[in-house]
Every structure is written in C-alpha cells, then in structure tokens.
Amino acid sequence: MHILAFSGSNRKDSFNQRLVAVAARGAQEAGVDTTIINLGDFSLPIYCQDLQNESGLPPEAQRLKNLFKEADGFLIASPEYNSAFSPLLKNAIDWVSRSEGKDDPAGAAFAGKSAVLMAASPGALGGLRGLVFLRMLLGNIGITVLPNQRAIPKAADAFLEDGNLRDEKVQASILNLGGTLAQHLQRLES
Ligand SMILES: Cc1cc2nc3c(=O)[nH]c(=O)nc-3n(C[C@H](O)[C@H](O)[C@H](O)COP(=O)(O)O)c2cc1C
C-alpha cells in the first residue's frame, strides 16, 4: 500500500507543499508508506493533444504517471488561484489521465483510488473555494475523495521555520488528515 503526496504549487516556499508534508508524516506514522513529490520537479509542457499524437507522452509525464499508477491514495494540498485549483495541478492531472493504448485505459492511474484534500492561503478562507472544484474534478475521474479536509487561512503566519504548523491543534488536525487516508486504505485492504 502506498500514498503519493503532493501540492499544486511550484513556488519555492510554497505553503501548500509544507502543508502536505505534515499530512504525509501523519500517513507515515499511521503505517502507510508515503512518498512526497514536488510537481515542479516534472517539466511538463501545457497539455496538447497534437503533441501526444505525434510523440506520445513526454518522458517527464510518463515518469509522473508511473508514480500515480503505483499509488493507492493521494494527499493533495491545493493552492487557490482565482477561486480554483492551480494550472500546474490541472496540467499534471491532464497528462497523467491519458491513455497509451488498449492495455492502458484513460484515467487508469486514478480510478478506484482515494484522496484527501487540503489547502493553505494567505487569505481569510484558506483556499477553501478551490477545493470545491478539485473535489468535483477528482470525483469525476473516479477518485473517492474523503469528506475530511482542512483549509489553513493566513498561511503566512501559520507555519514555523521547521515546516510544522504554529498552532498545535491545527498541526494535529493535519497529521490526522494523513492518518485518516492511511486508515481508510488499510480498511479497504483488510
Ligand atoms: C494567479 C493567482 C491567483 C490567486 N488567487 C487567489 C484566490 O483566489 N484566493 C486565495 O486565497 N489566494 C489566491 N492567490 C494567492 C495564493 O493563495 C498564494 O500565492 C499562495 O501562496 C499560493 O500557494 P503556495 O504558497 O502553496 O504557492 C492567488 C495567487 C495567484 C498567483
């Protein structure tokens, strides 16, 4: 059993990448092997069907897709851009969703898997509005998105230097988000 954890940000000091790292620790502590990746480490062009038709999936898209295929669940921290998720996250999902022939149906990297969502924003709503769209998108591609989620407002003041959350209760709730996904996957397996 395996969880893939990532954010929708490629910003150097991303709040969301820090947030998902805390949740990933919660999942790990609950006993499920968890890998954190940074989508910014995958150099993906904007999805173009002509490009895929001409030369297949770019190697970096294939590398990302393999990580998604190997995962049973996803921890996703989504920055809110103009009340929706980021283009980086959407572009990654679009590339990973693509079929490469009969033995690899479209969406195979997502279908039947589970996810837990979270967000952080310097704003007052913590990126909550973007999670509405993300939850809908993921549901439409066959992912069970668990009801538990958190949005962290005023993110510029919410984190300590070491990446943990300043407020102990908030820290515990994010660790618990990771633990919730881990326990859900463990229940499915048993
Ligand atoms: C194009 C753009 C649109 C944004 N729109 C919103 C928004 O609708 N709501 C919000 O709370 N923050 C918005 N922000 C601010 C982001 O929440 C902020 O940049 C945050 O740090 C992004 O997450 P990150 O730290 O993980 O990169 C926007 C930022 C950008 C660059």
From TrEMBL:
<dbReference type="InterPro" id="IPR050712">
    <property type="entry name" value="NAD(P)H-dep_reductase"/>
</dbReference>
<dbReference type="GO" id="GO:0016491">
    <property type="term" value="F:oxidoreductase activity"/>
</dbReference>
<protein>
    <submittedName>
        <fullName>NAD(P)H-dependent oxidoreductase</fullName>
    </submittedName>
</protein>
<dbReference type="GO" id="GO:0005829">
    <property type="term" value="C:cytosol"/>
</dbReference>
<dbReference type="Pfam" id="PF03358">
    <property type="entry name" value="FMN_red"/>
</dbReference>
<dbReference type="InterPro" id="IPR029039">
    <property type="entry name" value="Flavoprotein-like_sf"/>
</dbReference>
<dbReference type="InterPro" id="IPR005025">
    <property type="entry name" value="FMN_Rdtase-like_dom"/>
</dbReference>
<dbReference type="GO" id="GO:0010181">
    <property type="term" value="F:FMN binding"/>
</dbReference>
<feature type="domain" description="NADPH-dependent FMN reductase-like">
    <location>
        <begin position="1"/>
        <end position="156"/>
    </location>
</feature>
